[in-house]
Amino acid sequence: MRLDEIQRGGFFQVKNLDCCNECVQRLMSMGLLPDQEIRLVHEAPLGDPIAVEFNGCQISLRLRDAAHVEVEAIR
Amino acid sequence: MSEALRPPLRIALIGNPNTGKTSLFNTLTGLRQRVGNYSGVTVEKKTGIWQMPQSGQEVELIDLPGTYSLSANSLDERVAVDVMTGHGLAGRAPDLVVVVVDVENLRRNLFLASQASELGVPMVIALNCWDVAEKKGLQIDSKLLAQRLGVPVVPTVAKRKSGTIDLGKAVEQALHTKPLMARPQWPKAVQTALKSLRDALVETHGESLRDGELQRLLFDRNSAVRDRLQSPSATHDPIIRAAREQLYKDGFQPDAAESTLRYRFLNPLLNDVLERQALMKKRSTSESIDQLLLHKFWGLLVFVGMMYVVFQSVYSWAGPAMDLIEGVVGWLQGIAAGALVGTPMLQSLVVDGIIGGVGAFLVFLPQILVLFFFIALLEATGYMARAAFLMDKCFQWCGLNGKSFVPLLTSFACAIPGIMATRTINDNKARLITILVAPLMSCSARLPVYLLLIGAFIEPVYGPSVAGTALFAMHFVGALVAAPLAWLLHRSIDKGRAPMPFVMELPRYRVPQLKLVLLRMYESGKEFVVRAGTVIFAMTIVIWALLYFPRPESIAADTRTQFISQITEGRLSSQEGKASLDESQQAELDAQIAARYLEQSYMGRFGKMVQPIFAPAGYDWKITVGVLASFPAREIIISTLGIIYALGDEVDENSSDLRTTLSNAKWDAGPRQGEPVFNIPVALSIMIFFALCMQCGATLAVIAKELNGWWSAGSFCALTLLAWVAAVAVYQIGMLF
Question: B321 burial class (0-12, 13-18, 19+ CB within 10 angstroms)?
């Protein structure tokens, strides 16, 4: 499953990151690394961008960039 | 600003955005701070004087732009890297760095601290927002953390001065002991790659680079450090590429290596330091507020409502203050006119040129202040990031992003602070496009033009409600043109380049501190007055001179003779030339003389010469002069039209005299002689021209500074052409009905 496909309410864990993507590099330096728990908190009115929470902070990113992060539902 | 023989010690303040860093800076330095620029780039450089609590020694504190990492993607981040490596401060790295760390995001904040530690600068860590963290049940063992990191860790609460004395003491001590933060032990592969870089760049090519800088070159694709290398890129590019390839072969993807390894180093250091409840389960207050403010429907409604209130306030709150400034300007002009009555040329220069021109500009200061009050307020609460989040999709298609929203909103008051606000946009292309379309937002200098023309031609015919709608519509003409223009720019500049990612933190909501909001408002106001005021000042003098010279005495005499022979026409008793004119006759004569002089001034002659270009838009030579004269600043057209239509220059947009004179103006020559100059198509054509044209010397100067002279000249030509085409189109279509 990719980060741009997750639904609100669920909890996910990062599996894989495509670190060639610049957005992913930024997220990684903010601490988004494999095994990190992540969840969807908000969607902008047109569905894009989205805001995710990990490590206690909320970060907004575009769906196009979110597609470079692979996640797995944990509960 | 003590200028001691020995340069004062320098301390840099660095930290993630939204850590309360600037708030701490303000608490530490009070009002003893100044805003300048880093050489070469236009990022604001904030420095202040901080007095040490024990020795009383004064040190220079530098507030660096907030950044998550030293990878340096945006201009702001580049500056942070430059200062930390000493390039931003004339080759001298700071003596100490205070890393401001938000307790709630300790891990991420320490990532930056760890990057900074590699540059070999002594460090003290300020654990900010201690109060919020305690309230949330977060407990941090700062002593244990200090022990593990090897540097002092001081809990602070920026707002309440609590902890700032402790911070001062810790810094004082650290200036002597020079503590360095623990650094990660890099794996063999990284060490090898770093060594190969050091051998090639430092040993062979003689670059002076610290370990931290070599790491930046190795780990980052486009590091600010690269720009600082002495050797040409043809030399160092292959060296860096080879080192990165070597790292990749040894099993580390260079783009991911640093984050992975550095967090692997930091994680064990934080064991037992941080005790927190499982944050993933509990919904925070901010999240609950966002359920409403980021809602698909209600969120947008609140957003639109808020923008409406901001705009309303910009126009209504600022009104009385603007009237007051106009009053003061008029009063000063009166005094100056009285004092300089013996020297007419100097009188005209001071009264019409300097006080009039600069005054016309300063009138907009209240609007700027009100707008910045709201912007600072919305920023301090954390709402601005939400606004950018909501608007991002609307900006995406034309290559902009949500961060373009604040600069464009600001441009509705004035494009100058708007353009300066683009520095936070990390995508260079988006920043470029935002700067280029910002002048199209309807700034407050256009308002007088709209008020005059709508009041004179639309209101009498269609009534006040249509006039109100027209005024509202005029404000969006520019924005409507800006959207496709941005798209075109997006399509034509740098086509192949993928847009930079839009990654933005939604900080938790905070109660804004009035003091900081007011300080921010004051700074913006000051910058506006100082930076643009100097340009406006110079420009108004030039325009004044072009409208004033040449000035042969004979014209006044001839006009006077003609005038007197006119009013005494038929009557034999023109008791020689000095016939006693009553006051109104004298005023009319003065006005006619002024108009004559204007007609043959350099600007007047130029206007007549250029008029054929504007003829398709329905302008006569007088409007043409008005349009030309207002290229330095739009609002000049009001006083220029006033002079041209011979009312003297004491007119403002509400003067009914100017309105009636405009309605009564007739073509004085040519095929349409005797027909009224102004009709609704002409009025609309002028308004459209002003809506789209780049008539602002100060904006051009700012664009030249932020980008370069070519972009400035290019946007001037493009927008002027665009304005002309639109003005002609509006007039020609309007004349069909």
Answer: middle
- Phi, psi angle pair for B124, to nearest 5°: -130, 140
The CATH number assigned to the domain with range A3-73 reads 2.30.30.90
Nearest-CB residue to B389 (from A51, A56, A57): A51
Residue B348 to residues B119, B195, B212, B353, B468: CA-CA distances in angstroms?
A: 59, 71, 61, 7, 37
How far is residue B103 from each of residues B110, B142, B314, measured CA to CA in Å? 10, 10, 37
How confident is the model over B521-546, as a mean pLDDT? Answer: 74
Cβ atoms within 10 A of the Cβ of B461, count?
10
Digit-coded pLDDT (tens) for B344-367:
778 878 877 777 777 766 777 787
- Give yes or no for residue B648 having a pLDDT over 60: no
Q: Do A58 and B286 touch (CB under 8 A)?
A: yes
- Locate the domains of chain A by residue range: 3-73
Q: Pick A60's closest partner by Cβ from B287, B500, B504.
A: B504
Pairwise CB contact (< 8 Å): B104 & A57: yes
Q: Where are the beta strands (DSSP E) in B556-629?
A: none
Nearest-angstrom CA–CA distance, B384 and B398: 21
**Pairing between β-strand B96-102 and β-strand B123-128 as defined by DSSP bridges:** parallel
How crowded is residue B539: how many other Cβ atoms within 10 Å of its Cβ?
Answer: 22
Whether A29 and B296 lie within 8 Å, measured CB to CB: no
Query: b/e per residue, B363-387, with b = 16+ CB within 10 A?
Result: bbbbbbbbbbbbbbbbbbbbbbbbb
**With an 8 Å Cβ cutoff, are A29 and B287 in contact?**
no
pTM: 0.78
Residue of A nearest to B281 (CA): A11
pLDDT over 60 at B40, yes or no: no
Contacts of B450 (CB under 8 A, 6+ apart): B470, B471, B474, B687, B690
Chain B residues with beta carbon closer than 8 angstroms to that of A22: 73, 221, 498, 500-501
Tokens of residue B714, six digits: 């290019």
- B125, two tokens: 């860590």
> Distance from first CA to last CA of chain A, Å, rounded?
14
Selecting from A22, A31, A48 the residue whose C-beta is nearest the C-beta of B501 gives: A22
Cα separation of B666 and B669, whole Å?
9
Note whether A45 contacts B: Cβ–Cβ < 8 A.
Answer: yes
Q: Summarize pLDDT for B55-75 with one digit per residue, the tens.
A: 888 899 998 888 888 886 666
Q: What is the Cα–Cα distance from B9 to A63, expressed in whole angstroms?
A: 47
Q: Is residue B280 scored above 50 in pLDDT?
A: no
CA distance A57 to chain B (A): 7
Question: Of A20, A28, A44, which is closest to B390 when you measure between CB atoms?
Answer: A44
Q: Has residue B282 got a pLDDT over 70?
A: no
Q: Cβ contact (<8 Å) for A31 and B501?
A: no
